[in-house]
Amino acid sequence: MSMGFLIEETAPVVWRGLMVMSAVEKLLRQVDWGQLDYLVIDMPPGTGDVQLSVSQNIPIAGAVIISTPQDVALLDARKGAEMFRKVHVPVLGLVQNMSVFQCPKCKHETHIFGADGVRDLAKKLGLDILGDIPLHVNIRETCDSGQPVVISQPQSDAAKAYVKIAMEIVRRLPVPPT
């Protein structure tokens, strides 16, 4: 389910405060999710209305901070981690997104957004790195086609990176009541 299904494809989401929480409440309470093991809420970076409303009104087992290793993105990642700590949401760890690009022809690796920015931030915050997601054309292509790499190419290195991170997250979550 996505907020994108609730608005026109080209319409921006310019909601604040009560409008955001109302939409989140509808997604949580009016969507037939069926029997869930986990519900993942993907939020935009930052510490605005969306993050604050969700963290203050919904019981959250943990937050995962995802960032590219570049300095400007790390500023938001740090603020996000600190905000979750301030509202008593456990930060399960950090994920370094777009960590490395490997040329499909010559296999040379380039750290387009920097090499270890998220690792350095994790050390400063006393948090763990849950994993790295490479910058890879297959990830984009498979997502754009509606068949994410973990479904369409489950044995690929990119899919294995996602699975490793998911397993780390699950390992760090509290055991759900039976």
Structural write-up:
By secondary structure, the chain is of the alpha/beta class. It is 43% helix and 15% strand. Strands 1, 2, 3 and 4 form a four-stranded mixed beta sheet that branches. The model has no long low-confidence stretch (mean pLDDT 89).
Topology (SSEs and partners):
Layout: H1 17-30, H2 49-57, E1 63-67, H3 71-86, E2 91-102, E3 109-110, H4 117-125, E4 129-135, H5 137-144, H6 149-152, H7 157-172
Parallel strand pairs: 1-2, 2-4
Antiparallel strand pairs: 2-3
Helix pairs in contact: 1-2, 3-4
Put the structure in a nutshell.
It is built from 7 helices and 4 strands, in the order H-H-E-H-E-E-H-E-H-H-H. It is of the alpha/beta class and 178 residues long.
Residue stretches low in confidence (pLDDT < 50, at least 5 long) are none
Average pLDDT value?
89
Shape: globular
Count the E strands: 4
From the alpha-carbon coordinates, what is the Rg to the nearest angstrom?
A: 17 Å
Largest pleated sheet: 4 strands, mixed
Helical segment count: 7
The percentage helix is 40-55%
Task: Give the class from helix and strand content and strand pairing.
Answer: alpha/beta
Beta-strand percentage range:
5-15%
Order of helices and strands: HHEHEEHEHHH
Distance between the termini: 25 Å
